[in-house]
Specification:
Blueprint: H1 11-44, E1 52-54, E2 60-67, E3 78-85, E4 91-98, E5 104-110, E6 118-124, E7 127-133, E8 140-146
Parallel strand pairs: 1-5, 2-8
Antiparallel strand pairs: 2-5, 3-4, 3-6, 6-7
Amino acid sequence: MYDLAGSGDTSFLRSLKMAPRTDARRFVQILLVLIPLAYLVSTSGTAADVPEVKADIGPCSAEFTVLDKSGKPIYDAKIRVTVRYGFMEKRKQDLEIGTNSDGKARVTGLPIKLKRPLEYKISFAQMTKSVMSDPGVECHDKETVTLGSP
């Protein structure tokens, strides 16, 4: 070995020789941890996730797919509904949600028993349409709405 300091101590040189192997080993270990984590993060929040608004009143739900007249999904079509419930329908919740890139949106937590069916108002630009749904009849309703058609 070389004696750079002139003191006969070669431990400094040994530490230089060992450092690259240890650092490379640590680098590989970190990569083995980070690569699966990066994969999990990238797949957890995809554009296909269906947006959801919760009323937290009951177990029912309504899922919507909003299409234009040519059958293509509409992004960010607004779905609005007023849920009236309780004694003499004194309580109410105004809910609004926009559709995702697949034209889908979901309203959950709707009550089973209502005095009147729910009226969903779906709109995009100047196109609007109303859809009636009764959670007492169809608790997990799925609606496909086409905007722009007569």
